[in-house]
Design brief:
Blueprint: E1 5-10, E2 20-27, E3 31-34, E4 39-42, E5 45-53, E6 58-61, E7 72-75, H1 77-83, H2 86-109, H3 115-125, H4 138-151, H5 162-182, H6 193-211, H7 217-236, H8 265-272, H9 280-295, H10 299-302, E8 311-315, E9 318-327, E10 337-342, H11 345-353, H12 364-377, E11 383-389, E12 396-402, H13 403-406, H14 409-422, H15 427-434, E13 438-439, H16 446-466
Antiparallel strand pairs: 1-2, 2-5, 3-4, 6-7, 8-9, 9-10, 10-13, 11-12
């Protein structure tokens, strides 16, 4: 951060005694953006020292021994000889207090305070104003932030959709359960290092009691990430946290795990050839597995698949069937991304049987149960190994499961990516489909639309050359 620069100066207008009020100024690199000028400008701390002096007793020492080399304004020798050193000593104390409070704030929160915020802290330390008691229950603050973020337009960076809101409601629920378990009320100022770690331990104990096992490490890591977002927001709203939470030692980082399973092409072919007309559950499961495993769409996109339309695209005088779809998952949860995905012959057949429409699927929990039931019926009992970390264990566990027990909707996307690798489809070709970069505002741009068509055509062309029975175009 920018080193601080300071100086004292006199108010331009004198009082009735011909004295000028002395001000202290501290420039520490805090700047704000002015949309009118489209430029940033600096704002500094400026406080009254509550001391006054006649101009004849005021001097600027141009050469100093201060570390930042800034000129220091202070009372001259004539003043010191007549009235003593007390004024200069007190001015030095005010300067040191302001600089020290700035350092303390920066060390604790790793950001610059707003000038008004720093001024309030300094005036509290000087005893000029009473310290504001702004301690807040963490659960109530989460409610407040959820309400605020939900009202924002979806284009705002701070907007939270239903999925994100659900995550923070879960965080609130975890904290409430911890408070019930420990008979405590967690406020920001009372949150210390011990209480911080106790929250995660409490979540883990509750999972052990309900599920008979420790909670997964990466689940705790996500909860920790959400809690830290709340703590950062509290600091930005001038709420004091009881410990240096922003230290990296208090982060729980996600770890790499191997806890997914993929269906082989032969298994997909068996699913395609299975008659499911006798069971609506099996019909849903079969179609879901085929569509997700042959398009790489996530569960959130699969639920909305029925809104898509089959289109005919032409690239290099070659035509192919595909569809344009929104990819709803993105890093900032606000950017809508699009991709065109080619349709395999098997998927076109299902669409034709469904009166030319894409199938409609139930919610994630329902389709998850239906998939497991269907794969159990097909006797997909192959033993698969998972490599997983559980909180707070330092080592990985190697676990074995029957495939139908652990196969989930997301495993279908994993199936697509795994089979593309086995078919030796270049990663760049696959990535253009699974991780698109075309944003909503440019989707109607002919150039971008052309790019998406090219990407889809390349994938279908590569797969045609592989002559896969299930990935057939």
């Amino acid at each position: 951060m920018k080193p601080s620069k300071y100086f004292f100066n006199l108010e331009s207008r004198a009082n009735k005694s011909n004295k000028h009020l002395i001000y202290f100024n501290l420039n520490y690199g805090y700047k704000i953006y002015n949309p009118a000028t489209e430029k940033y400008h600096y704002q500094n701390l400026r406080i009254s020292t509550e001391y006054s002096i006649k101009k004849e007793y005021w001097i600027q020492i141009k050469k100093t021994k201060s570390q930042d080399g800034e000129p220091i304004y202070k009372a001259n020798k004539a003043f010191v000889s007549k009235f003593g050193k007390d004024l200069n000593v007190d001015l030095e104390k005010i300067k040191n207090l302001c600089i020290n409070q700035l350092k303390l704030f920066r060390n604790e929160y790793e950001i610059n305070p707003k000038p008004k915020e720093l001024k309030r802290i300094v005036l509290e330390k000087l005893g000029r104003i009473e310290k504001v008691n702004n301690d807040v229950l963490i659960t109530k603050y989460i409610d407040k932030i959820i309400a605020e973020r939900k009202k924002l337009p979806p284009t705002s960076i701070k907007y939270w959709g239903d999925g994100t809101i659900k995550q923070y409601k879960n965080l609130k629920s975890h904290i409430e359960n911890h408070q019930t378990r420990t008979s405590t009320q967690l406020t920001f100022s009372k949150l210390n290092e011990t209480e911080y770690w106790n929250i995660f331990d409490s979540i883990n104990k509750r999972n052990q009691e309900s599920e008979g096992n420790s909670i997964k490490h990466n689940t705790i890591a996500k909860i920790c990430k959400h809690l830290r977002v709340i703590l950062k927001s509290a600091v930005e709203n001038n709420i004091e946290i009881g410990f240096k939470w922003n230290n990296t030692d208090f982060k729980i980082k996600e770890v790499t795990t191997e806890n997914n399973t993929a269906l082989e092409q032969e298994q997909l072919l068996k699913i395609y050839n299975t008659d499911t007309d006798h069971s609506r559950e099996f019909y849903n499961a079969r179609n879901y597995i085929l569509f997700s495993s042959l398009t790489a769409l996530r569960i959130g996109d699969m639920v909305e698949l029925h809104t898509c339309k089959v289109e005919t695209y032409k690239v290099k005088n070659k035509t192919f069937k595909g569809f344009l779809t929104k990819i709803r998952k993105s890093n900032d949860n606000t950017t809508e991304l699009f991709t065109i995905i080619p349709l395999a012959k098997s998927l076109l057949e299902i669409i034709e049987q469904n009166n030319g429409n894409f199938p409609k699927f139930p919610s994630k929990p329902v389709i998850g149960r239906q998939i497991k039931k269907f794969l159990k019926f097909l006797e997909y009992d192959e033993i698969v190994e998972f490599k997983e970390r559980y909180y707070p264990e330092p080592d990985y566990r190697i676990e074995t499961h029957k495939q139908h027990v652990v196969f989930s909707p997301h495993s279908c996307r994993y199936t697509f990516i795994t089979n593309m690798s086995k078919l030796e489809i270049p990663e760049s070709v696959v990535k253009n489909i699974t991780h698109p970069t075309i944003k909503a505002r440019s989707v109607l741009d002919g150039y971008n639309l052309s790019n998406m068509q090219d990407n889809a055509y390349k994938l279908s062309k590569y797969l045609k050359n592989q002559k896969s029975k299930i990935y057939s175009y």
